[in-house]
């Protein structure tokens, strides 16, 4: 039996197969039932339902929720979507006459938009926790290894030395911004569409502000036509998810590279690797690769959903049902990925000797140029002189530090008395002691600030 049985014949089976959404929207059951319980009470206050009717409906809805939770809920052939399924079951429990009153003034258009917002709000704490735990893991490892110097890269070529902790913290700040971005989304999600009806509003005197407060929304939507079609919150969440996944993919790439035998700076805990079906020796970083790939899928979900929204006529259109696939995939991906990353970061081994071995003296060429600047040489001239010097060393196949003083003087007279300490990577790191710089005391401050900010975000839970 369909909801529109009064008007239409039975829907063609192929249409049902294509259009039904119960297969994937059943996971909205708790939100749907919560919304229906609140709506039943609102109808009671408006005098549409008697107190006894409200009670009977609420008790039955609570029972249906338990049925879903325990897996006892049995779908019927007419269950097109979660809203239909719950209403059908309600009819079985309280009689169709009473169940039929619950939908007074309500449409699945305001209902589904309300459910999706409630559901997303209920998922946010889990995603926040994932971001917080990953942030805490990055900070803990950065703190543990404070002082360790590693090569910093640009264009994946050795550039200048930085602290290992500084590199780790560079990833931390990305995820911290994701957390702040997520918290910023709540305001847009917490707007209640219920009471908008199909599009024109509710004529039964439902107190929408009270209803909104009961459901934990910050208020009711200001325009009923907008309320049923507004999926900005989905697009915004998909952007948040895509960017967080981009950040995860960047961390993945660094971890894959740095844990490769060729770099060897890090060692992944083998519990976070998977083996090969053919090559017995392998321990592959599959979770990191899969996350790197998933970022592409999530970017696709964002672009795809924006394309769904583009040019839609106003009001509800069934195109909007596409919101669920994209949103569920984004939420599930983050909830599954974030704990994996926190685990990988916390358990990875750190190999200081491999980092030290990769710190060649050419990475200190900038220090030589800066030294000339301190002697009054204009930077461009200093850059050229040191560049020539590096080229000469390469031609001779001799490391910079082993070239005789004459070679230094030849490159630039002012390089004649370079103190050997200048070619110490630690000195290069320690010189950058402005706020945000890589000097150990600054990175220590950075870590302290990050910890404070994490504690504050946890307080806002
Ligand atoms: N399954 C639909 C959705 O997800 C529910 C709303 C259906 N409304 C309608 N007018 N057909 O959007």
Q: Could you say what the CATH architecture of the largest domain is?
A: Up-down Bundle
Number of strands: 6
* CATH domain fold name of the largest domain: Fumarase C, Chain A, domain 2
Q: Roughly how many Å is the radius of gyration?
A: 30 Å
Summarize the main sheet.
Answer: 2 strands, antiparallel
Beta-strand residue fraction: under 5%
Order of helices and strands: HHHHHHHEEHEHEHHEHHEHHHHHH
* Associated small molecules: arginine
Short characterization:
By secondary structure, this protein is mainly alpha-helical. The protein has helices spanning 13-19, 22-25, 29-45, 51-70, 82-94, 96-99, 108-144, 164-189, 208-214, 224-229, 232-258, 286-309, 322-347, 352-357, 365-374, 379-396, 405-411, 425-430, 440-459; strands at residues 149-154, 157-163, 191-192, 219-220, 266-267, 349-350. Helix 7 (108-144) packs parallel to helix 13 (322-347), helix 11 packs parallel to helix 13 and helix 12 runs antiparallel to helix 13 (322-347).
Salient structural properties:
461 residues; mainly alpha; Fumarase C, Chain A, domain 2; Ribonucleotide Reductase Protein R1, domain 1; two-stranded antiparallel sheet; 62% helix; elongated
